[in-house]
From TrEMBL:
Pfam families: Kelch_KLHDC2_KLHL20_DRC7 (PF24681). This is Nitrile-specifier protein 5. Keywords: Iron, Kelch repeat, Repeat. It comes from Stylosanthes scabra. SUPFAM superfamilies: Galactose oxidase, central domain (SSF50965). Signal peptide: none annotated. Its cofactor is Fe(2+).
Length: 325
């Protein structure tokens, strides 16, 4: 069944939430959203609390966490496998790239430092992350000496890092790309490589080979720092920066507010019809926290906060549900 349209729902928020921010990350375990990191003022980490949003009661709280709590950071990435959340990298208050991998057990509320230093991927921020039932995948980002194009996986069963072959020069180092695990392949979609780019690459996990793929259809313009979800054979893309600011990270570029879907079998893009069920449309934005989600029996994408065309950080939460024809 093809995806025909999506419906936006703005979620009410109760309790003292974490507030407006961008360059943060979320992960979803069950019916709870966990938010970490981010900035309100450019390049200034807000806090290192783990904020929890109950998707049933729509209420915020702060996890009463113990263990090795990560220091504050921006440009961080996180993903969940089962009841465990994994947090990797980011940039600290001194603008230094980080490479620690932390885990957070949502059953015990305990943080643990898993790896750092030479054990694992090099330091980076504004990288991308995705996960399947066993592995957490990390790709690209801004490294100590430039943008990266390497792909790593953390094996959550054997507790070890795996480095995959390099994609080579065809896939330039980039920050803020889309990353998705779909049908045995890891897909790298677009990103910022000194300019916004619109290329798509995939890594075959069985054969350990990279390929650049040509896509067609209603192809979105080049962009980075957009929100991404996967559903079956589809990769969904919302928003993102389509023209960077001449102030760099200190300013707001030009953002998109459209939704596109890529069929990874036909390699055809389609712009989705968007409907609004309650509240408002999220509008153009980028640098959001996002995660695939399920709400009221519907699959879709949760988007929290981000940066706006006016360079104001946002604090709203939207869910868009995917509909099939």
């Amino acid at each position: 069944m093809a995806i025909s349209h999506c419906t936006w729902v703005k979620l009410d928020q109760k309790g003292g939430g974490p507030g407006a921010r961008s360059s943060h990350a979320i992960a979803i375990v069950g019916q709870k959203l966990y938010a970490f990191g981010g900035e309100f003022a450019p390049r200034v980490p807000v806090d290192n609390n783990l904020h929890v949003f109950d998707l049933k009661t729509l209420t915020w709280s702060v996890a009463d966490a113990s263990g090795d709590t990560p220091p504050p950071r921006v440009g961080v990435a996180m993903a969940a496998i089962g009841d465990t959340i994994y947090v990797f990298g980011g940039r600290d208050a001194e603008h230094k790239e980080l490479n620690e991998l932390y885990s957070f057990d949502t059953k015990t509320n305990n943080w643990a430092l898993i790896s750092r230093g030479d054990n694992g991927p090099p330091h980076r921020s504004y990288h991308s992350i995705t996960a399947d039932d066993r592995y957490v995948y990390i790709f690209g980002g801004c490294g100590v000496s430039g943008r990266l194009n390497d792909l790593w996986a953390f094996d959550a069963v054997d507790n070890k890092w795996v480095e995959f072959p390099s994609p080579g020069e065809n896939c330039k180092g980039r920050g803020g790309p889309g990353l998705a695990a779909v049908q045995g392949k890891i897909w790298v979609v677009y990103g910022f490589a000194g300019m916004e780019v619109d290329d798509v690459h995939c890594f075959d996990l069985a054969n350990k080979t990279w390929a650049q793929v040509e896509t067609g259809g209603q192809k979105p313009t080049a962009r980075s720092v957009f929100s991404t979800a996967s559903y079956g054979k589809y990769i969904i893309l919302y928003g993102g920066e389509i023209d960077p600011s001449d102030q760099g990270h200190m300013g707001a570029g030009k953002f998109s507010g459209d939704v596109f879907v890529l069929d990874t079998e036909t390699l055809e893009w389609k712009r989705l019809e968007e409907r609004v069920e309650s509240g408002s449309h999220p509008g153009p934005r980028g640098w959001c926290a996002f995660a695939s989600a399920q709400r009221d029996g519907q699959e879709g994408l949760l988007v929290y906060g981000g940066n706006s065309p006016t360079n104001d950080r946002l604090d709203d939460i939207f869910f868009f549900a995917l509909s099939q024809n």
